[in-house]
Amino acid sequence: MINDLAQILVITRSFAEFSEAMESVGNSAETELKAIIEATLRFDDIIKTKIASSDMCVYVVPPGETFIGETMADEFGKDEGEERGIVAGTMEIGLVQRMGNAEKVLRKPKVILARDLPEPDSE
Amino acid sequence: MELSAAQAFLTRVDAVSEAEVVGMVENLNTLISSASGAISATWDHREPVPWTLVDEPDPQLIRDYFGDLVFKEVAARNPVAVTLAVEMYLVQFVERVTSGWGGGAVTGTVLSEIYGMISAEGEVCESAYSQY
């Protein structure tokens, strides 16, 4: 995980050295990342062993999907009315419950739309 | 969503409530946001490193995670996109870990059948009892 995050920081030119990025991610967010791993494993155990009545699964919208207001939440809350945007990424996890053939979104994933990404720097 | 008798029975068997699971997701989102903030704080005050100094990263890995749309922005060091990329990575980490074998439906099916058998036996017993 730290390795992947360090790669993101290197490719964004935040750090010149990969080792420096690794150290920075480890120093700045080790506690938070450990907490995410622990919470994820606990959550995984709960949804797979403690719930018999339905399937619960994380709902993450892949980049490039069309925004659907009924099942997704727009980070900036601008996609109202008829306009449909393209999802750039999911910033907050959603939760879906499947029971037989029925599917219910218990928590909408929060997404950012492509049109809301600022223009890239021209430098 | 209307529950069948078997599903209603299974809901009572659940060791955790729907609200508790939603709460766990909320907690994960808070942790992701917190980690993303901590990581962003390490670079947002720094000047971008010239391309020539950058180690050879693995662009394919980044593309795989974020798609071309965000990759373009991330590579341009758009601060919003970098924070988004870190959050997207952590969100996808949770998805990858939890998207393996899902026990609920399988367990649910087995328990539904058991419930069906118990109910059927109950009816048989009741009808047998009623004869006396």
Radius of gyration of chain B: 26 Å
Along the chain, the helix and strand elements of chain A come as HHEEEEEE
Q: Helical content of chain A, roughly?
A: 25-40%
Tally of distinct domains of chain A: 2
Instruction: Report the count of strand segments of chain B.
Output: 0
Order of helices and strands of chain B: HHHHH
Structural class category of chain B: mainly alpha
Strand order of the largest sheet of chain A: 1-4-5
Number of DSSP helices of chain B?
Answer: 5
Using the CA coordinates, give the radius of gyration of chain A.
Answer: 18 Å
Give the proportion of residues in helices of chain B: over 70%
What would the keywords be for this entry?
heterodimer; A: 123 residues; alpha+beta; three-stranded antiparallel beta sheet; three-stranded mixed beta sheet; 2 helices; 6 strands; 34% helix; B: 132 residues; mainly alpha; 5 helices; 73% helix; 0% strand; disordered C terminus
